[in-house]
Amino acid sequence: MATPATAPPRPLLIKGGRVLLPDGTSPRADVAVRDGLITEVGSGAAALGDEETIDADGRLVLPGLVDAHRHMWLGSLSASAGDVTLFPYARQVNEGLGDPFTTEDVYAGVLWGAVQALDAGVTTVADWAHNLGTDEDVEANVRALDDSGIRARFFFGGKASSSGDPAHFAAQARRLHTAHAARGGDGRIALGLALRGPSMAGPAENEADFALARELGLPVSVHAGMAGMPGAVDQLESQGLLGPEVNYVHANAFSAREWELIAASGGTVSATPTVDLTMGLGSRLATGPALAHGVPVGLGADTVAYGPTDLFGEMRLVLAGERAQANAEAVGRGEMPSELHLSHLDVLDVATRGGARVLGLADRVGEVAPGRAADLITVDLSAPHLDGFGSPVLSAFRGAGPRDVDTVVVAGRVLKRHGRLDAALLDHARAEMRRSRGRIRARSL
Fold first, then answer.
1. Is the dihedral of CA 95, 100, 102, 108 positive or negative?
2. pLDDT level of residue 1 (50, 70, 90 thresholds)
3. Which listed CATH number (3.90.79.10, 3.20.20.140, 2.60.40.420, 3.90.550.10) goes with 65-357?
4. Does the model's pTM come out above 0.85?
5. 8 A C-beta contact, residue 373 and residue 40
6. At the topology level of CATH, where does 4-63+365-418 sit?
7. Rounded Cα–Cα distance for residues 72 and 111 (Å)
8. Crossing angle for the helix pair 135-148 and 423-444, nearest 10 degrees?
9. What is the pLDDT of residues 95-127, one digit of tens each?
10. What dihedral do alpha carbons 340, 344, 345, 346 form, nearest 10°?
């Protein structure tokens, strides 16, 4: 299939939009792009005559959103579970629907998951891939990410249902590492390991898994700090396994000491607000404690089988949840809080620069600034729910969703124009998804 990712990026000039700059201001400015990089941001950026011009008048130009935790293979299973807690969800979706996945189903799920993300303005994902039983499955996952044009940190996790075979997982990981190095490419896809971690495995297994990651020089991500699963960070600390390469997903129930250990070791956190609060993983979002301890934190949609496909709603949930938490003591005394905790710009920073820090990509994405990768989105502010009196950034934060994302650019390639995804990509992904859903439904009969 010929996809947008196979063509060299054409120079771009995004003109006349309100651009969110790293300092939080949003002046009217132009953004020039060459060779997949932002080369100039300012009023009257130079036009050289060979670029495609994108009219951003009436639009807000933002850095592409960074999803810091998403299981991409679940893309074709969106809305397949609801109103269940973690373990029934795992039996219903991961095991019941996911275990029989073919290589073709993996490709279709990841590709459709990438389409969902791109359509919503997510230009970078942490793909926590834990339904890959064979080398062919692994290749299909990587190929789907590549074909979509999205940027990704591919956290390889093998197949969760067969995670008791560490030798198979290690062999797969080494082959993936070797193949990735030989493959080259444009740098959009980076590797990591999705490990079972102390909440899902014992000390000996964790020691072996972390040793493998450090042998390969790869960052790791683990699910930890969920309700009913205490002491994950304490266990890693006792084994000498903490470090700046460790990412903790959910982190709803860490103790104060665990937060201090994460901060001291340079670890990072990924919060998934909808799943965390509605699946029963905890009653306290990780964003507040992470920010208070200086721990890099990003937002993730986690699983579209249960939760959302975009980060706009997740940002609003974070602002509401964190303010409610901060205000609880005063409200409990019957008082009106004298000030509000956290601003919309703080939360937007978590969904952009925060996610970039979590994924080790802070020097590449998360800001609209010269030298950064041209991963950009524009939000059309003309709809009634976004045509505000005040700040265009606040308008977008309060009301935007996937349908309001007008333009999506990744590494200088335009993947969504005038509110429509690239037709070849969308048609191919939809056809693959529908064939896969037919197979999945047939197996479920």
1. negative
2. low
3. 3.20.20.140
4. yes
5. no
6. Urease, subunit C; domain 1 (2.30.40)
7. 8
8. 150
9. 999 999 999 999 999 999 999 999 999 999 999
10. 60
